[in-house]
Amino acid sequence: MALLRRLASRMPGRYLSTLVIDPTTVSRLKEIEEDTLRVTVDGGGCSGFQYKFDLDSTVGPDDVVFERDGVRVITDQLSLDFIGGSKVEFHEELIRSAFRIVDNPQAEEGCSCGVSFSVKID
Length: 122
Fold this sequence. Notes:
alpha+beta, 6-stranded mixed sheet, 3-stranded mixed sheet, 3 helices, 9 strands
Protein backbone atom coordinates (compact mmCIF):
# COMPACT_ATOMS: atom_id res chain seq x y z
CA MET A 1 0.00 0.00 0.00
CA ALA A 2 2.88 2.37 0.77
CA LEU A 3 4.27 1.80 -2.73
CA LEU A 4 0.88 2.67 -4.25
CA ARG A 5 0.76 5.92 -2.24
CA ARG A 6 4.31 6.90 -3.26
CA LEU A 7 3.62 6.26 -6.94
CA ALA A 8 0.24 8.01 -6.85
CA SER A 9 1.91 11.17 -5.57
CA ARG A 10 4.23 11.22 -8.62
CA MET A 11 1.63 10.64 -11.34
CA PRO A 12 0.98 13.63 -13.63
CA GLY A 13 -2.80 13.26 -13.83
CA ARG A 14 -3.45 12.17 -10.28
CA TYR A 15 -5.92 14.99 -9.65
CA LEU A 16 -8.48 13.62 -12.13
CA SER A 17 -11.40 12.71 -9.91
CA THR A 18 -13.95 11.42 -12.40
CA LEU A 19 -14.90 7.96 -13.48
CA VAL A 20 -17.22 7.44 -16.45
CA ILE A 21 -19.75 4.64 -16.17
CA ASP A 22 -20.43 3.27 -19.65
CA PRO A 23 -24.01 2.21 -20.54
CA THR A 24 -22.71 -1.37 -20.96
CA THR A 25 -21.83 -1.40 -17.25
CA VAL A 26 -25.29 -0.16 -16.31
CA SER A 27 -26.94 -2.80 -18.50
CA ARG A 28 -24.84 -5.66 -17.17
CA LEU A 29 -25.31 -4.77 -13.51
CA LYS A 30 -29.08 -4.54 -14.00
CA GLU A 31 -29.04 -7.84 -15.93
CA ILE A 32 -27.41 -9.66 -13.02
CA GLU A 33 -29.63 -7.79 -10.55
CA GLU A 34 -26.81 -5.93 -8.84
CA ASP A 35 -26.66 -2.20 -8.33
CA THR A 36 -23.06 -1.72 -7.19
CA LEU A 37 -19.61 -2.49 -8.59
CA ARG A 38 -16.39 -1.87 -6.68
CA VAL A 39 -13.24 -1.09 -8.66
CA THR A 40 -9.82 -1.14 -7.01
CA VAL A 41 -6.20 -1.11 -8.09
CA ASP A 42 -3.73 -3.62 -6.64
CA GLY A 43 -0.05 -4.19 -7.20
CA GLY A 44 0.64 -7.15 -9.48
CA GLY A 45 -0.21 -8.40 -12.93
CA CYS A 46 2.21 -8.58 -15.82
CA SER A 47 2.52 -4.77 -16.11
CA GLY A 48 2.87 -3.84 -12.43
CA PHE A 49 -0.69 -2.96 -11.41
CA GLN A 50 -4.02 -4.66 -11.93
CA TYR A 51 -7.68 -3.71 -11.87
CA LYS A 52 -9.93 -5.64 -9.52
CA PHE A 53 -13.74 -5.76 -9.79
CA ASP A 54 -16.08 -6.93 -7.01
CA LEU A 55 -19.82 -6.85 -6.41
CA ASP A 56 -19.60 -5.04 -3.07
CA SER A 57 -21.97 -2.31 -1.90
CA THR A 58 -20.12 -1.37 1.30
CA VAL A 59 -19.07 2.28 1.27
CA GLY A 60 -16.08 3.08 3.48
CA PRO A 61 -14.88 6.47 4.74
CA ASP A 62 -12.21 6.77 2.00
CA ASP A 63 -14.53 5.67 -0.82
CA VAL A 64 -15.81 7.74 -3.71
CA VAL A 65 -19.17 6.81 -5.28
CA PHE A 66 -20.15 7.44 -8.90
CA GLU A 67 -23.73 6.89 -10.05
CA ARG A 68 -25.51 6.47 -13.38
CA ASP A 69 -29.05 5.32 -14.14
CA GLY A 70 -29.56 3.62 -10.78
CA VAL A 71 -26.21 1.82 -10.48
CA ARG A 72 -23.14 2.79 -8.49
CA VAL A 73 -19.43 2.30 -9.01
CA ILE A 74 -17.40 2.60 -5.83
CA THR A 75 -13.66 3.05 -5.59
CA ASP A 76 -11.31 4.14 -2.85
CA GLN A 77 -9.45 7.44 -3.13
CA LEU A 78 -6.06 5.79 -3.65
CA SER A 79 -7.36 3.64 -6.52
CA LEU A 80 -9.02 6.72 -8.02
CA ASP A 81 -5.56 8.29 -8.30
CA PHE A 82 -4.69 5.41 -10.66
CA ILE A 83 -7.95 5.28 -12.66
CA GLY A 84 -9.27 8.85 -12.55
CA GLY A 85 -10.54 9.98 -15.95
CA SER A 86 -11.12 6.38 -17.08
CA LYS A 87 -14.25 4.61 -18.28
CA VAL A 88 -15.73 1.46 -16.70
CA GLU A 89 -17.35 -0.76 -19.30
CA PHE A 90 -18.59 -4.32 -19.67
CA HIS A 91 -17.04 -6.08 -22.65
CA GLU A 92 -18.24 -9.32 -24.21
CA GLU A 93 -16.35 -11.50 -26.65
CA LEU A 94 -16.30 -15.18 -27.51
CA ILE A 95 -13.67 -16.23 -25.00
CA ARG A 96 -14.70 -14.07 -22.04
CA SER A 97 -16.98 -11.38 -20.70
CA ALA A 98 -15.84 -8.95 -18.03
CA PHE A 99 -15.92 -5.47 -16.64
CA ARG A 100 -12.86 -3.49 -17.64
CA ILE A 101 -11.23 -0.08 -17.42
CA VAL A 102 -10.63 1.68 -20.74
CA ASP A 103 -9.17 5.03 -21.76
CA ASN A 104 -7.13 5.31 -18.56
CA PRO A 105 -5.10 8.54 -18.79
CA GLN A 106 -2.90 7.34 -15.90
CA ALA A 107 -1.78 4.18 -17.74
CA GLU A 108 1.36 4.26 -19.83
CA GLU A 109 0.80 0.80 -21.23
CA GLY A 110 -1.18 -2.32 -20.47
CA CYS A 111 -1.10 -5.98 -21.19
CA SER A 112 -3.15 -7.59 -23.93
CA CYS A 113 -5.65 -9.05 -21.44
CA GLY A 114 -6.62 -5.53 -20.32
CA VAL A 115 -6.36 -6.39 -16.63
CA SER A 116 -2.94 -4.99 -15.78
CA PHE A 117 -1.18 -1.73 -16.57
CA SER A 118 1.85 0.40 -15.83
CA VAL A 119 1.52 4.00 -14.71
CA LYS A 120 2.87 7.24 -16.12
CA ILE A 121 5.40 8.82 -13.77
CA ASP A 122 6.58 12.46 -13.85
